[in-house]
Amino acid sequence: MNTEILGVILIFLLSVGLAWPLGKYMVKVFGGQKTWTDFLSPLERLIFKLSGIDPDQPMDWKQNLKALLGINVFFFLFAFLALVFQGAHPFWNPVNIGNWEPTLAFNTAVSFTTNTNLQHYSGETGASYFTQLLVFCWLQFVSAGTGIAACALLFQGLKNRRGTNLGNFYNLMVKSCTRVLLPLAVVLAVILMINGTTSNFEGLSQVTTLEGQTVQVAGGPTAPMVAIKQLGTNGGGYFGPNSTHPFENPNYLTNIAENVAIILIPMALVFAFGFFMDRKKLAMMFFGIMSLLFVGFATISISEELKGNPAFTEMGIANGQSNMEGKEVRFGAAASSLWGVSTTATSNGSVNSMHDSHTPLSGGIFMLDMFINAVYGGVGVGFINFFLFVIVAVFIAGQMIGRTPGLFGKKIEAKEVKIAALVVILHPFLILVGTAMASYGLVQDPSLGWLNNPSFHGFSEMLYENTSASANNGSGFEGLGDNTPFWNVLTGIIMLLARYIPIIGPLAIVGSLSAKNPVPVTAGSLQLESPAFGAVLISVIVIVAALAFFPAMVLGPLAEYYTF
Q1: d(CA 138, CA 151)
Q2: 267 with 286: CB under 8 angstroms?
Q3: For the segment 130-148, what is each residue's pLDDT rounded down to a tens digit?
Q4: Separation between Cα atoms, residue 114 and residue 498, nearest integer Å
Q5: With contact defined as beta carbons under 8 Å apart, do 324 and 364 qualify?
Q6: Which residue among 57, 192, 247, 527 has the highest number of C-beta atoms inside a 10 angstrom radius?
Q7: Could you tell me if residue 278 is left (phi over 0), alpha (psi between -120 and 50 degrees) or otherwise beta?
């Protein structure tokens, strides 16, 4: 048990240690400074030349938003058509996997375009090599690049003293892919391949088991997809079982590498904010708040899983045994819990254990992570979501001390506060309305058969699915039968709204702030680095999540916990 905890501590400290220099490097990339990856400049110039884009053209927030939304529409259409007609072409499809049903194709195209990677299909049986690499793997690069670029636009808008230029989205997105994601993905893919993660195009292989039976085993180009799925907080697994599968995550070393990859870039972007704005102390306070929540959630989840399930004790299993149901022996309960908190804190969504099998409080912690949706968060958009809480906290703190709220020398007025409040409210609205619709539909027609578990846990399964979609996470309580037209359409719509409105709102806010005249900082100005503001900020985050979701938590994980 002590060894398991040491492994958890190692993963966290290693992530923080690597995130600090990565944050510095990313600021250089955003600012167009010289870096060791300048050898990729010819490739970037070729991309811009072929696409007819001027990467140096200044763009305001509306122009950047138009570019972001426009190129993402193209991504979606390409993915949808590729899935619907997957079986109509012979490319990289050695086992002749056929076309996809339209609602599943819609859901999956939306899912990978929005960096959610909610999977209502099993990868090795539903997707060809062409689809896995040139649709899913490619989308995991560009969707992550979209989030990082949007975050860089936010940084520039906050730094501007006066003006409307936020940078160039196309330039930032391409460089995020080529200079941040690609080098890291190559390193991680090599680590995975050395340790046994598959990387081939052999189709089904015939294998003789220890029992002497002959079975067909699917392999494929797994390592490249696993690398970007973790680094880009995508989470889309090559295989249906995701990173519980030994071909995706062979041993404890690969588990460490993949878990570090999940939280590395989200952490680095918090530090990048401090370097970019020259506000390192404030960035450390933001990082401290996120880490306090992260460590607290991980502690609760690990504690619950190491205590085990009381129902096992009643069956004669010794008290104190870890809850190993739905977990891999090669990882253990503690590493599985840390992964669960990491993947839900960062909107990653990959799993190395079945979340549906975790104890009620542990599963509830995973949902609470996604309710907040700003504890490190997804690449780029995690910090953007956190920024919305900062706006609300600045407004509340300003009212408490009787002064006009201000942020980095710019007044926060009614327009900015209204946008921030509406976007913050959107997240619980989508989750609770979606869960209500699913619950009502099941009550009206129990024969739908979505749930494999009754009562409180069944409610948790529906709540988790909608939460995962709205948080652009992609993990699931897999007791839910989600590959139906209802769930495909519902979660597809939720993913679209939850991805782009939280990007549109903050860009509109920084566009407004960027154009304002700066206000001189005085002794009476709100000190963002102060412990008092930190207390207000963390209170806003916790209270918003508690007020919005506590009733739903009572009906699901908490009710299940108290019925043990």
Answers
A1: 20
A2: no
A3: 888 889 999 999 999 999 9
A4: 9
A5: no
A6: 192
A7: left
DSSP 360-412: HHHHHHHHHHHHH--SS-STTHHHHHHHHHHHHHHHHHHHHHTS--EETTEE-
Is 561 buried (19+), middle (13-18) or exposed (0-12) by CB count in 10 A? middle
Length of the chain: 564
Distance from C-alpha of 501 to C-alpha of 381, rounded to nearest angstrom? 11
Do the beta carbons of residue 561 and residue 361 sit within 8 Å? yes
For the residues 196-201, what does the mean pLDDT come to?
Answer: 81
Tokens read off for 85: 């007609």
| Residue corresponding to tokens 């009381």 | 310
**Token pair of 105, please?**
């194709």
Distance of CA 366 to the CA centre of its chain: 13
What residues are paired with 59 via a beta bridge? 167
C-alpha torsion angle, residues 454, 456, 457, 458 (rounded to 10):
50
Distance CA 433, CA 549 (A): 12
Question: How far is residue 301's CA from residue 99's CA, in Å, rounded to a whole number?
Answer: 40
3-state SS, residue 206? strand
pLDDT average, residue stretch 282-297: 95
Q: Measure the CA–CA gap between 139 and 63, rounded to whole angstroms.
A: 23
Place of tokens 């993913």: 495
